[in-house]
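Can anyone check this?
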Amino acid sequence: MSTAVVETEEHKALRAAVAALGKRYGRDYMTTVVREGAHPDALWAEAAKLGYLGVNLPEEYGGGGGGIAELSIILEELGAAGCPLLMMVVSPAICGTVIARFGTDEQKAAWLPGLAGGSLTMAFGITEPDAGSNSHRITTTARRDGDHWLLTGRKVFISGVDIADATLIVGRTEDARTGRLKPCLFIVPRDTPGFRRSQIDMELQAPEKQFELVLDDVRLPTEALVGDEDAGLLQLFAGLNPERVMTAAFAVGMGRYAVNRAVEYARERTVWKAPVGAHQAIAHPLAQAHIELELARLMMQKAARLYDDGDDPGAGEAANMAKYAAAEACVKAVDQAVHTLGGNGLTREYGLASLITAARVARIAPVSREMILNFVSHQSLGLPKSY
């Protein structure tokens, strides 16, 4: 896929270097990790050693001083090689960004060097069983108790809590002036009393497991609160926009991997007198998938650029569009790749069947395609809300 028009020489060099790393591991490595119930520790460690995990974090804390543009390139290329690291979406992109932008000096010193160097990871807890995509219905609440906070609530579908050193929990506190609840972010270390997790049994095959969390009067020190208690919504969306960009990168990378596998097969598989890729019924859908992935990537690059330039409102619109476009393109690409291979597309040998479920995740998480359409209809087009 050509990037000459929209990427700098530094970005192209980064893309090539990460692609080489991904090639050394590949899809076989990731499927083996999943089959053994392990985690991609070797790839994570090497990516960390090369400075990839913290490329978006400040240099003064051991990061690369870049932005989401660089981090999304890394995730996309690992995905295109068949070995994406989902925790990159959560740990450096969401949690690292929020702490770097809004954390206290003590929080930055405690967490950013480890997040940048890969020795620490952080999960992100926002989704609740009764709130779904409606963040205004979050019921996890924090109340003051002397010099502490008491945090109570439930979360579901939280990735990687078992391997994360802490979870950045989205809760709500009461506004003393209005009595209304407002969002706030808290760092909850993994072994904090009252903080319990249970694994959710998923059909999805991935090394990162999903968990339900129960917070039962979890006592936290005052310094567990990230940033300003009155700026929680701003801080929340500072993490959600990178999350959407990185989800787009994850989906584009996965779609590229699927199309590349299908193209390789279509070039060689001969049923009649010519390779099946010579037939338009095979070639055209693959070409269409390639085009749609390229278009999604362009929107992803726009969103990353706007975010890195400090345009949060513009980035919000573009990041939602990028996530939508990439998810749709990924689902179509995977489906067409499997169809191109026929029965072989469902075998472990070719490594495509497991992507059918994984590709659907990009449509559902971290926000559904319908909620993105709602956002665009009333924020971009000015249509009235239906909710």
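Reply from J.R.: I decoded it. The mean pLDDT is 93.
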